[in-house]
């Protein structure tokens, strides 16, 4: 009985964390987090900062494990630090790179837009007076594409990044713009929930299947903010407002790209920033319209060595 109670409490905790990591951040401020890397185990842990310290104890949010394969590299992302595998119930997605580590795809474990893939061995049934929902099978549903380009500044400047956020419309960064949000999870079953609810026909189209060129143009595109040359330090610098203390080619700030349109003040606002503060400690700050899961996956892509781009 005690074990069953513990499992119910644990499931409830996972549900709350799922809600937190999939919800977009606030519009007016950055959510401050940090990532701890363990090079011996090839694991990465994401924490929510609970104070102004660059790396306090924090609240654990997500974990990732790097898996090197013959033709690619996978980062398996879960809600717990142990049993980090795709078959575990706490698996929520992954990041996959090409062989050179220059192109990445972020995959969500659950289908977008309320489309569910159900297990054949389970069906909707009534247990007592409560309905038991069908189990949703974990899959691979692309939600972002990340690419790294040749860095003309070499090791002295940040890498050139280009991120296409497939389910997020480009208008989400404008005043009154809306990003897809997550529905509440059913309390009586942690395996079944609808991932996104779209508030515009544009985002519904982009989530319903593979993107064509026209739909991809309507998705939010993030690019790295251009650094400025510092005469005294004789290097290219970005202003992280004290959140980054160690120079590294991995450091970056991402802003919305106008993609051929007229740039406005919303295209100068930093949506995601990532930087080094210790040997294996990095800060990660994000805001609307991306979520902690999306921000974490993008930051994981920066850990790979990219010889072709530097």
What's the arrangement of secondary structure elements?
Elements: H1 2-22, E1 31-38, E2 43-48, E3 59-68, E4 73-78, E5 91-97, E6 103-108, E7 125-127, E8 130-132, E9 141-149, E10 160-169, H2 201-207, H3 213-218, E11 219-224, E12 228-230, E13 235-237, E14 252-256, E15 270-276, E16 281-286, H4 292-301
Antiparallel strand pairs: 1-2, 1-16, 2-3, 3-4, 4-5, 5-6, 6-9, 7-8, 9-10, 10-11, 11-14, 12-13, 14-15, 15-16
Give a quick summary of the entry.
The chain is α+β, with helices and mostly antiparallel strands and 310 residues long. The protein is built from four helices and 16 strands.
Summarize the structure in words.
The chain is of the alpha+beta class and 310 residues long. It has a single domain (2-120, 132-309), classed as Tubby Protein, Chain A. It has helices spanning 2-22, 201-207, 213-218, 292-301; strands at 31-38, 43-48, 59-68, 73-78, 91-97, 103-108, 125-127, 130-132, 141-149, 160-169, 219-224, 228-230, 235-237, 252-256, 270-276, 281-286. The chain contains four helices and 16 strands. Mean pLDDT is 75; it is low at 1-10, 114-136 and 183-211. The strands form three sheets. The chain has a twelve-stranded antiparallel β-barrel with strand order 1-2-3-4-5-6-9-10-11-14-15-16. The radius of gyration is 20 Å and the shape is globular.
Q: How much beta, percentage-wise?
A: 25-35%
CATH superfamily: Tubby Protein, Chain A
What is the structural class?
A: alpha+beta
Question: In CATH's first tier, which class applies?
Answer: Alpha Beta
Essential attributes:
Tubby Protein, Chain A, disordered N terminus, 310 residues, 32% strand
